[in-house]
Amino acid sequence: RTNTTLPASEVALAYKQLWMVERAFREMKCTLKLRPMYHWTESRIRGHIMVCFLAFYLEMALRQMLSSV
Predict the structure, then answer these.
(1) Residue 2 lies in a domain
(2) Residues of the domain holding 55
(3) How many domains does the chain have?
(4) Which of 11, 44, 51, 59 would bridge with 39, disulfide CB 3.0–4.6 Å?
(5) How far apart are CA 41 and CA 24, in angstroms?
């Protein structure tokens, strides 16, 4: 069901944020080489994912800082 009470600016912002989340997942899966994972214990798998996520976060923060320079 479509909510037509939202202003167009809010709809556009929500769509942009959705696009950014989808891009983040694509980046983590492709660019950061989240897979294949050669770990078998839960703690190592969690650690691997955390390192990949941290690398992604640092890359995005650096991009944002450099774009404002």
Answers:
(1) no
(2) 8-67
(3) 1
(4) 44
(5) 25
Tokens matching residue 67: 């774009």
CB-based contact 30:56 (threshold 8 Å): no
pTM flag (> 0.85): no
52 C-beta neighbours (distance < 10 Å), count = 19
Six-digit token string for 62: 């650096």
Token pair 């897979």 is found at: 35
Mean pLDDT in each 10-residue stretch from start to end of the chain (69 residues)? 77 84 78 76 89 86 89
Predicted local distance difference test score (pLDDT) of residue 62: 93
Residue 1 within any structural domain of the chain: no
For residue 32, give the nearest of 63, 58, 65 by alpha carbon. 58
> Looking at the domain assignment, is residue 3 inside a domain?
no
> Tell me, what's the pLDDT at 43?
93
* Cα–Cα distance measured from residue 52 to residue 37, given in angstroms and rounded to the nearest whole number: 11
